[in-house]
Every structure is written in structure tokens, then in C-alpha cells.
Amino acid sequence: MRIGNISEEESKHALHNMDDPYSSDPQRHKVLEMHTEKPFNAEPPSSLLIENFYTPKNHLPVPEVDPETYELEIEIEGRTEIKTLRLEDLKKLPKHTISTTLMCAGNRRREMNKVKEVKGLSWSLSAVGNATWTGVRLVDVLKSVGIDDTTQGFHHVHFGGLDSDTANNPYTASIPFYKALDKHGDVLLAYEMNGEPIPRDHGFPIRAIVPGTVGARNVKWLGRIFVAKDECDSHWQQKDYKGVSPSADASTIDLSKLPSIQELPVISAICKPANGESVVVKDGHITVKGYAWSGGGKKIIRVDVTVDGGKEWHVADFDHQENAEPPHHWSWTLWSARIPVAQGQKTVEIWAKAIDSSYNTQPDTIDNIWNFRGFLNNAYHRVKVNLKP
């Protein structure tokens, strides 16, 4: 049926990006180091990353969601009824706020690439951020549909996003049932980030926040929750985000038989100075700054820094750390250290390692934790710098 005509000039705009699912994505800041444009994957410069304790923080196109018509479906395996909650329904439940760090499993992958080529985006040390999130506890939402920690027969809770790939497959991931139902696990269905409605890039209007776990389980643009016996069968749960042996071969290993990455190991990174930077020596010392974090609600209790290959270690000061105690310590720690250097020395290699409240620490080299996907690089962070008198 013909409705009318548009001019030739209007048709150029009307048809622009018609077949591009990323055409309506939000604008991003120019300071970000972009790894891919579509989908948009980028990280801030490391020097800016630690300027604030709370950072203003996709695999698939960013969906456009109308909060007035938004609905969250909750389904329980074996039951016919599907519960639907609107945004205003969620906001009627008790409000809860937590601060937590979210980190990609591929953070610091670039260093693994230098040892041996890996598969994945070449993330530096800024595929991480820390924010406050406000919303409702998942445990309260599940209790409203008759699921609590006494419920038997279920082992996983699935999260389905409203974002889909070109084959119309939504992004889905799952977490263990015990984490979802632990009232101290602090899993949120968040609608605010840093005191404001969640930006589109970060999951508006509702995002699953699973503190202490890998970023891939913190599903954005949440549209569905499924309580199930089995783990999610999506690509991102079964064929990716797995930890493997350094000798594993990508062409032969069956990733579906390996456990999925959930909690992340202890890690630290040197953000200032950057690798290759020239640093001014003041009163025989240089200043080093960075972050440290551990998954699973563990707290950083110490960061050690050395400039002589580990002969002498210097304990860093904590510039900002949350007061929350383990196992509910979800945020990173920002640290700094004033390190003496020998007079006349031209270069140094700075090493940093963190220790968490379970006395887990970082492995000293990448070689024995290398893997073909470049995941879970938590080896000592090493930065070589030039010294200026």
C-alpha cells in the first residue's frame, strides 16, 4: 500500500544505516582506546582509570528499551506460569545499594599476547571499573515467585539480555543457584549506577549485578530470569569464558566439559607510571600508583612493589578502600607507593603484586598461566620506565 513520497534527499537519511544493528548505539567519549567499533569495545587510559574510586562506566548492539513498556519475565523450570514484572513493580521492592568492581576475564590480555598470541581483543589493564549500583536483591525477587534457599532441585539461575546477535540469539549467562539465593551474596537487579539511572551502554533499564564474579555474568538489559536445573547452554557459558591449561589446544579441547569462570582471582595493576614512560626522580624516589582487587568478596590486605627484581619489596599505602569486610568486600583498592631508586640509575622495571584476605597472591610470571583465550591474567604486573633526575 502506497502511503506517500519522500524526496531524494530525505531518502538518503531514511535509508542510512538501515541494515546496521549498531546505528542507534550511544555516542562514546573520544578519550577511550577503541578495540572494535561494532560492537563497541574500548577502555580508558590507565592514568585516568584510577583518578576516581568510582568510575563512570558489549558484545552485541545496544537495545533501545522504553521504560514505560519494559517487562522482566521470570520463569521456573517445570512450572507453566511465567511471572512478569514491570519496572515500577521492581522499584516497590526493598531498595539496596552496593559498591562493586566489574572486570572482564580478558583484562591484561595484551601481556599474554607478548608471550604467545592469544585469541581475543587486546585489552590492556583498564577492562575494569568500580561503581555503586542500586536496585533490588535477586533473592527478594525470587522469593516473590516462591523460590528461596530451601527450594530443592535447582542449581542455576539464568539471565537473558534484550540484546541479540545477527541470528537473533539473545545474550544469556548463568550463575550458581547458591549465589543467587544467598542473601549475603548481594546479587542485584540494578536500575541505578552511581546514583543515576543506568546509562544505555551499561544496561538500562535493568542490569544483573553479580558482585565478585566475572563481568560476563553481569548481564545488561535484563529481560528474562530462568531458574533451572542445568547451567545456561549459550555460547558465552559453554564455549567461552573458561579457564584452560597453558597446553590446551583450541582446536581439540571441549570447552563445554570445563567449569565456567565465576569468581575472579586476586589481581593488581600499575596505572602510573605507564610502561615506557619517563619518570622524574624526586628526593631519590619515584611514585607508583595502581589498583588491586580480588573476586568472591575478598579484601585486599597488602600490595607489594619492587624495583629490583624482588630483592626488596615495599608495602604500598591504601589511598581508598571500602570498609566492607569479607566475604562482602566487592570493590577494588586504590594504592600508591613511594619507592627509592639508586642514584644514577637510568631505567627500572617496577613489579606489583597483591595479597587478599584469604592470603591468595599473584603468580610471578605469565608463562605458566598462559592460555589461548588470554583469560585470567593475574601475574605480577611489570612496567619498565626511564628515570629522569
From TrEMBL:
Residues 59-236 form the Oxidoreductase molybdopterin-binding domain. InterPro entries: Ig_E-set, MoCF_OxRdtse_dimer, Mopterin_OxRdtase_euk, OxRdtase_Mopterin-bd_dom, OxRdtase_Mopterin-bd_sf. Residues 1-25 are annotated as: Disordered. Residues 9-19 have a biased composition (Basic and acidic residues). Keywords: Metal-binding, Molybdenum, Oxidoreductase. Its EC number is 1.8.3.1. It comes from the Eukaryota. GO terms for molecular function: heme binding; molybdenum ion binding; molybdopterin cofactor binding; sulfite oxidase activity. The keyword rRNA processing does not apply. Pathway: Energy metabolism; sulfur metabolism; Sulfur metabolism. The keyword Cell cycle does not apply. Its cofactor is Mo-molybdopterin. One of its GO terms (biological process) is sulfur compound metabolic process. Residues 260-386 form the Moybdenum cofactor oxidoreductase dimerisation domain. GO terms for cellular component: mitochondrion. This is Sulfite oxidase.
